[in-house]
Design brief:
It is built from 13 helices and two strands. The chain is mainly alpha-helical and about 325 residues long. It has one domain: Up-down Bundle (Ferritin). The chain has a two-stranded antiparallel sheet. The longest helix is centred in the middle third of the chain and has 29 residues. Bound molecules: fe (ii) ion (2 copies). One fe (ii) ion binds next to helix 6 and helix 7.
Length: about 325
């Protein structure tokens, strides 16, 4: 700009930033925390990341239930490591939300007051140790299908967090499958436990991909912003196609009489999902919603002294720095 040129108006620079944002998306590059972003993108991204973080943290509860009752030291060590990974996933994700201006206290408050959601799957009970295996196999398996494309999400910090998370999820899935394999080669009672867990978790796992595409109003915008790369139904189909041969190898029956290979489509067909059940669980009426949120609230309140101590320590450090300066 030369001295004689008029200074750009605010509207001009806003348009300039907007074009830059759209270019980054079009070129498949990443939006970074200091870049200008449309307010709606920021809000959508914070909500999605928070919901994901909440799912990781609440997801510690159903399996955490079995840590003290794991059948061997080896199984206990594996389960402890897995549940601890989920805590780590929650922490990276809350940090990613903070890079967008999301406030951790505010997000936690929204979770424990029921104003923000987490994955519907964690509102189901874990009734036997076979559930630990089935959660690893199906729930972490579904999470992998959902999350691998998110490694290319348009928001840089989220995409990068997802790379590490997916590596750990893959360990979670394997430990689940290996546990089930062990049980399937055990006694008849163990095989029955596995089949029972599969019966209870199969349909809720398919619901993890969210409502069907024709009932998913936010999908189009999220795909345009490259926050999301595939629709709910595409990912659900991918999961079914991947899982059916694994079920055969394991020797369990998936509880769906309509499940069959469709050579024309090159995919498995499957039966109708009970969307009323999903709606009920999402709106708080699942078997364990109240228990999960109450437990999270109690843990948050029990941890108040840790947050206060950390804040006091940070203040003291700051004062020392100021005195030294
Ligand atoms: Fe996770
Ligand atoms: Fe996991």
């Amino acid at each position: 700009m030369t001295a004689t040129e008029p200074a750009p108006s605010e509207a001009d620079s806003e348009r300039h930033f907007e074009r830059y944002f759209e270019d980054v998306i079009a070129r498949d590059q990443r939006i970074e925390p200091r870049d200008w972003l449309p307010e709606a993108y920021r809000k959508t991204m914070i909500r999605q990341i928070a919901q994901h973080a909440h799912s990781e943290i609440i997801g510690m509860q159903p399996e955490g239930n079995w840590i003290t009752r794991a059948p061997s030291l080896r199984r206990k060590a594996i389960l402890l490591a897995k549940v601890q990974d989920e805590a780590g996933h929650g922490l990276y994700l809350y940090s990613a939300a903070e890079t967008l201006g999301g406030d951790r206290d505010d997000l936690t408050e929204k979770l424990i007051s029921g104003r923000q959601k987490y994955s519907s799957i964690f509102n189901y009970p874990t009734l036997s140790f076979a559930d630990v295996g089935v959660i690893g196999w199906l729930v972490d398996g579904a999470a992998i299908c959902n999350q691998v494309p998110l490694c290319r999400s348009s928001y840089g910090p989220y995409a990068r967090a997802m790379i590490r998370i997916c590596k750990e999820e893959s360990f979670h899935q394997r430990q689940g499958y290996e546990l089930l394999m062990t049980m399937m080669t055990g006694t008849e009672a163990q095989r029955e436990m596995v089949q029972d867990a599969v019966n209870r978790y199969w349909w809720p796992s398919l619901m993890m991909f969210g409502p069907p595409d024709d009932d998913s109003p936010n999908t189009a915008q999220s795909m345009a912003w490259k926050i999301k790369r595939h629709t709910n139904d595409e990912l659900r189909q991918r999961f079914v196609d991947m899982t059916v041969p694994q079920a055969e190898a394991l020797g369990v029956t998936l509880p769906d009489p309509d499940l069959s290979w469709n050579a024309d489509r090159g995919h498995y067909d499957f039966g109708a999902i009970d969307w009323d059940e999903l709606k009920q669980v999402i709106s708080g009426g699942g078997p364990c919603n109240t228990e999960r949120v109450e437990r999270r609230r109690a843990a948050h309140e029990d941890g108040a002294w840790v947050r206060e101590a950390a804040a006091a320590h940070a203040r003291k450090q700051q004062q020392r720095k100021e005195v030294a300066a």
